[in-house]
Amino acid sequence: MSKTTRKEALALLTAAGQDYEIKEQSIDGLPIRTFANAPSSLKQLFADAVSDETFYVFGDERYTFAEIYTLSARLAVQLQQRYNVSKGDRVAISMRNYPEWVAAFMASTSIGAVAVAMNAWWGADEIAQGLDDCGAVVMLADQERLDRLAQIDNLQTEIIAVRPTASDHVGTEFQTLMDDIPSDVVMPEVAIDSEDPATIFYTSGSTGFPKGAVASHRNILSALLSWELDQTSAMLINGTEPPVLDYQSATLLAVPLFHVTGSHAIYLSSYRAQRKVVAMYKWDPDQASDLIESEQISSFIAPAAMTGDLVQAATRTNRNLATLLSVGGGGAPRAPEQVKDIDDAFSGALPGTGWGMTETNAIGTGIGGQDYLDRPASSGRVSAVLDLRVVDEAGVELPQGERGELQIRGASVIKGYWRRPEANAETFHEGWLKTGDVAYFDEEGFVFIVDRIKDLIIRGGENIGCGEVEAALLEHPLIHEACVYAVPDTRLGEEVASTVYADVKISEDELRGFLSERLAKFKIPKYLQFTDEHLPRIASGKIFKRQLRDDTVASLSDPSVG
Fold first, then answer.
1. How many helices (H) and strands (E) does the chain have?
2. Number of Cα atoms under 13 Å in the Cβ half of residue 488
3. How many angstroms separate the CA atoms of 529 and 498, rounded?
4. Which helix or strand (DSSP H or E) is residue 373 part of?
5. DSSP reduced 3-state for 368
6. 8 Å CB contact between 298 and 274
7. Whether the predicted model's global pTM rises above the 0.85 cut
8. How would DSSP label each residue in 443-505?
């Protein structure tokens, strides 16, 4: 009997009358494939999932789906009544992966507001820029962020303080607000259309302050159902059934919720699956191993640096972490040798990965199991509700095997960037999103991403715009020229490096201290090269970045250096 192909499996599962029925409709004048049976909004997604199953675990705290829903309903009432949050208003969230992050997200999107998932690693200046950019009515922040907010002059945004530990913090305490609302309150009634904006996630470009990617409810729900469809089709292709567990399925949340990997692939995808989310305060591979065993974790999704850490921890301690069924990737490419390491290190877990962007709500392509073991350099095949193409510099589609820019369109692709018409004009064309990635297709439709056009560094899944770091360096009065670039890093994939021209000697410690007042810690170059001569340039007059990068990489590999 011949094996079911992926094309046949998708055709069967998405046919009329099926759970994952796909229909084509016109949205903003473009033909888009959508899921006919998707929830109408995130609000419906949350309401449909209310149950007494365990939902969110954080340290010693455990919450059911019903308890988190009630908490979010109480917050939603306060947002409306005390802070006058109306449909379309922005509510900023900046904190660690506390249960309050989830409640804030649910409350905001359930009343038609736009949840702004702010990067919790930002410094005070970046937070101020973000609040000004999105125009948030209110912001929920924990103590680390409250400390940074205290450095901002003329703060215009109302603040809700989550788990404050200092007595002189700004804002009203979250728990005080909850104590003022009865526990039996119901979620406010607000009519929400699937095309209404739901979220803003900030994504770094090659220049300037990060752009706010605006996603609709449909965009996000399309991503969630796409993952479900891919998993169901994989079982149909392989002739397998969903694993029958004698315990609740669970996933480990070790990446920040302000990234779409954490918020979408891990957190939001757990509602319909009734899956337990076990959140870590910060990443620690040994603690992660303990949690996988004690909480019977079945899935783990994280950038390559973290999955590599887990492999090493499991190997070092002789653990097989037998409850793990899948180890997925996201945010940054995984070295091919790590794919085999995952298969070897965990007795029952299959490796998987995918390619997606903030702008696509984390979906795009996916690959797992034997396909991934056979093609460890591939990012997989395209989602059923998306289209991919590879084009040349003139925008002409290229045939299979030829390299060009990867472009994407479809149901999960954002409508555009928040108040950035120039970025929209540059990035979108007739529904196609220009990804800035160089890729090609093989004969079976698998995508291989080989380079980037955009001037970005991806450090452990975190996008860093070279232009932003260069601008901060050039604020130093002794620096005349600056060039920032990526260098390879075994654990994080890439690290930030820079070469600066200054005719007066600057110490590394002094420069890093200067940058710490302007950039989040992860953006500060790990490697600083100094020269008292003008930086080399190419014929066009631009700094010869490749030469500087090659020189730095060569110096780092020279054992006599340092």
1. 18, 29
2. 11
3. 6
4. helix 369-374
5. strand
6. no
7. yes
8. TTS-EEEEEESS-EEEETTEEEEHHHHHHHHHTSTT--EEEEEEEEETTTEEEEEEEEE-SS-
Whether the CB-CB separation of 116 and 91 falls below 8 Å is answered with yes
d(CA 212, CA 342): 35
Q: Given the structure tokens 């939902």, which residue do they identify? A: 55
pLDDT tens for the 562 residues of the chain, in order: 568 999 999 999 999 999 999 999 999 899 999 999 999 999 999 999 999 999 999 999 999 999 999 999 999 999 999 999 999 999 999 999 999 999 999 999 999 999 999 999 999 999 999 999 999 999 999 999 999 999 999 999 999 999 999 988 889 999 999 999 998 999 999 999 999 999 999 997 666 789 999 999 999 999 999 999 999 999 999 898 888 899 999 999 999 999 999 999 999 999 999 999 999 999 999 999 999 999 999 999 988 788 888 988 888 888 778 899 999 986 666 666 778 888 788 878 888 889 999 999 999 999 998 898 899 889 999 999 999 999 998 999 999 999 999 999 999 999 899 999 999 999 999 999 999 988 999 999 999 988 778 778 989 988 888 878 888 898 898 998 899 999 999 899 999 999 999 988 999 999 999 999 999 999 999 999 999 988 898 765 678 888 999 999 999 876 444 4
Q: Which residues of 394-428 are buried (b: 16+ CB within 10 A; e: fewer)?
A: eeeebeeeebbbbbbbbbbbbbbbbebeebeeebb
Reference 413, options 424, 402, 398; nearest CA is 424
Q: Where are the domains of the chain?
A: 6-37+216-450, 42-192, 456-557
List the structure tokens of 328.
């997925």
Write out the two tokens for 297.
């974790």
Taking only the tens place, the pLDDT of each residue in 198-219 is: 999 999 766 678 999 999 999 9
Fold of 456-557: GMP Synthetase; Chain A, domain 3 (3.30.300)
83-93 as b/e, with b when 16 or more CB fall inside 10 Å?
Answer: bebeeebbbbb
Q: What gap in Å lies between CA 336 and CA 366, rounded to an integer?
A: 15
In the structure encoding, which two tokens stand for residue 37, read together?
């049976």
Task: Supply φ then ψ for residue 47, to 5 degrees.
Answer: -65, -40
**Architecture of domain 42-192 in CATH?**
3-Layer(aba) Sandwich (3.40)
d(CA 31, CA 430): 11
Burial 98-122 (b: 16+ CB within 10 A, else e): bbbbbbbbbbbbbbbbbbbbbbbbb
Common-topology check for domains 6-37+216-450 and 42-192: yes
Question: So what CATH class is 6-37+216-450?
Answer: alpha beta
